[in-house]
Amino acid sequence: MASDRKIYKFKEVETHNKTKDCWLIISGKVYDVTPFMEDHPGGDEVLLSSTGKDATNDFEDVGHSDNARDMMDQYCIGEIDGKTVPEKRNYIPAQTPAYNQDKTPEFVVKVLQFLVPLLILGLAFAVRHFTKKE
């Protein structure tokens, strides 16, 4: 590895976790993959999900080609200080909208699916009753 490459602490690397600023740790090296975000075959979500941790297992589990491995060199910006990488990643769940427990819109639709035919049937009987000749 070139001597001009920097040694990064984990705390610094983990802050680069956005589409416009994305760094990964793979096999002890730090990669700035920001320019590659739009071109990554798996999409930028895959890369973003590997930020804030040692992404070596994520990278190896996919089975990248030799060509992909060769491309990595152009994005390598340094090495990680292994002593600063936590052994276990703290899980932070994705921000999702609150769960609608009573499912009000779905309930209203089901009630209407039941009531509307009954109303039509009632209307038909009323029309028949009032228009019936005696």
TrEMBL record:
SUPFAM superfamilies: Cytochrome b5-like heme/steroid binding domain (SSF55856). Gene3D superfamilies: Cytochrome b5-like heme/steroid binding domain. Its main location: membrane. InterPro entries: Cyt_B5-like_heme/steroid-bd, Cyt_B5-like_heme/steroid_sf, Cyt_B5_heme-BS, Cytochrome_b5. It is found in: Membrane. Keywords: Heme, Iron, Membrane, Metal-binding, Transmembrane, Transmembrane helix. Belongs to the cytochrome b5 family. This is Cytochrome b5 isoform A.
